[in-house]
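Q: Hi! First time doing this. I have a protein sequence and I read that you can turn it into a structure. Is that right? Here it is:
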Amino acid sequence: MMKFPINRCVFIAACLLLIGLTLSGCSAQVTECPESLQVVVNGKNSVLLSWEPVDDAISYRVYRRISGSADFKFVTDTEAAYYTDSQPEPGSYDYQVTALGPHGESAGIIFLAAAVPAESISLSPPKITSVSRLDMATNVLFFSDENTDCEYEILRQDASGNWITIGKTADHIYYDIAASENGSYYYKVLAAGTDGETAESEIAAENTNPKTVFGVPVLMYHEFVTQEDLNSGIAFDEYAIYSHEFEHDLKWLQENGYTTITVRELAQYLSGQGEMPEKPVILTIDDGKLGVYKNAFPLLQKYNMKAVLAVIGTEIHAASEAPELRAENTAPYCTWVELAEMSASGHVEIASHSYGFHVYQHDGRIGADCGEPDTMADFRMDAYKDFRTLQTCLKNYDIPAAVTFAYPYSERSVPADEVWLQCGYQMLLGGNMESVRASRTNFFLQEAGLNAHSSVLRRIARMHGTPIEDYIG
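A: Yes, that's right. Below is the predicted 3D structure, encoded as structure tokens:
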């Protein structure tokens, strides 16, 4: 065994002690930890970190981790006692800062979690571009903006100068149907973002950059009979008129410069296609009685005019199955073949009066309006089935698909409107309802296109003994 002198052993022990002290000095805590740590998330989605300076710190090291994860990741070194972290995506983060001194790196102190919100999108104020008087009780607002995913609140100033909310819309058009004919109105539009931020338009008065308005009166007929029909047993029901009355109407329209158009043509014009005559009028006929084919159709051909015939599918189907039995019926209907002939002539547009909804009261419904016990899912399913059935019947006889739906008994509602338009119809025929339009004539703005308001037509029933000029003259 090798032996060392005592003095050499002392020297070696002293060296080992010195090395141990040096190693101990390189371990954690040789430098003080940063204190008074603060974290602030500013409006630009940056995280501001700050702390008390450490006396012997040369620089500081910043770490970050997603809250809940195990490991911190290095972010940066900085000589200042603060740092702005602008890199993190929206989420929740923990931060750790250590001091780097002449003796090494201190232990880290963890900041409280910082929640970085999704970037806030600053809303632009909407701009009201036009306020047009549509009829005696309706103003139409057009507005534009650069925002996305906004809902718009429409405000109108009342007589006391207060601003009241009159409605909401996701579109850039709004129909104020509660405007008085003699009122003078001022409007504002409030854009509301998904994060609660709002932006308000400047005030716009009625008749600001008004657009051109055009009107289309719509008449509603049902049955056309002659004295010969009555002698053969045909009934003269509540809504029937004589054939000579219908001929009077066509002559009057011709002499007064009116042009008959179809609902399909109106829908096309509102969609930006075709031209509108100076004085348009629409003649609609409900049900599809045989008198339309025998008495009205020849007159439409004679005067080169058009009408829209809304048929009841079940009645047309029954007449087509047994046309010979119509002679025994006091209210006979047309067949699909007769409808096809009228359609091919260009004088008659075939529309829907429903295939099987023309029942006054059934399952809580009145006609094709959704009833009180209805669930919208059930009503939508039944409506779509009815729509497809009628369209299939028309297709089987080479009749163009119906774009128009006439409500049975003129019973309708806004929820029902939405369903029938979703089925595929472009325009809906109501009755003489002021809730649809304040004026008897339907007024439109072409720039508004087809929408929930313009797609529903008000029409006046032409009654026996009251000539057409009393309705639209």
